[in-house]
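Quick entry, no commentary yet.
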Amino acid sequence: MIAKTVSYFDGEIECIGQLSIPESSEVLPIVLVAHTWKGRSKFEDQKAQALNELGYAALSIDIYGGGVNGQSVQENQTLIEPFISDRQLFRQRLISAVEFAKSLKGIDSSKIAMIGFCFGGLASIELVRSGYNLAGCVSFHGLLQHSAEPFNKVNSKLLVLHGDLDPMISPEQILALQDEMTQSRADWQFISYGNTYHAFTNPQANDIELGTVYNHDSDKRSWIAMTNFLKEVFDNVNK
């Protein structure tokens, strides 16, 4: 596996990601990894390497630009706010990462997916809302804020992996997302893990007051669900 820091651009904004590609003589599917509200970090880069073990190339993307990392809950909230408020900005920043991935040597440009965590989970959902045609998108304990932007015809399959005790997500938000996807005739799945809080895939999450708590079983189960989903959507490309 070869891992390296890469730069790509959304207009004049330089985004700094990490690309990791397993050694292979064949062109490979690629999975983009969208970061939490902290920004791209070791957590996302490790997820990219775990995707390499499944036989996929992976790109940890930088939504904020400049490789910025938040240092507090307040700073993280400030970082995500421009993208929560302006979904066209959000969508374009994500599409620029996908277009970069398509241009990479050794990549099958028809087999691209995105996974994301927390804010990155919302990124996966927002990319689906944009109407962009990917093989599939996966949200792990994603934020589910509704978009005021009209959603386009959904062309990407969607898997949402959610903790039932996540205090950041209301039942109304869940129903709104499900209704939205159904109205758009999307191919969507929503899995809710019982007794599971926000950030359940992050072993460093242990703040019960904030509602971010690691859950080993839900972490393992959700990764298996993602693995099966990616295999299915990549196998069905061009069928």
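second:
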Amino acid sequence: MILNMISNPTRRRILESLTKEPSYPLQLSKEIGVSQQAIMKNLDLLERNGMVIGHQVSSAMGPMKVVYEPTTEFTVVIDMRRSMFSADVTDESGSEDDVIPITETIDELRSEISRIDKEVEELERQRSALIRKRQNMISWAMSQLDDEGFTSLHKNLMYQMLNNPDVPEADIIRKMSQRTDIERSLHEIAVAMRR
């Protein structure tokens, strides 16, 4: 659901704006440069899917207004590489640390944020290196099935086994169709890997 909601550029821009401060549709329309009708349509979708909430507030300049704000926090990581596709969404709602940095000035706060940003960048570099290593291992293993004797069933089974290493073989076999062919294919893969 989250991937579907954020796949739309207008919804992403709405969410980006709402993370800065709660806002009402006319403000969003002006800021994003999209019609108020389009804003309302997208806010409705976001609200129905639990990503934002609208609440009425009084206005000094007329009738009550509906102000929207985000209701969830999440991280999305998508890896698409040869022999690997994963889309992970981590819901971080309610995982907020109560630690507030004690700083004297805006410069100290900016410096601390910069340090955190650099640490996150380093973690992302390390993650990328591990993903490359994983990809190379899977690509090598998949290349062992390049002979004519191996079918797409063999390759799909190998893909499932390698990309779900913590799932027992029996569970993978159960999830795939043609169980007897899969068991025979698993044996043929094991033989190929011993070459």
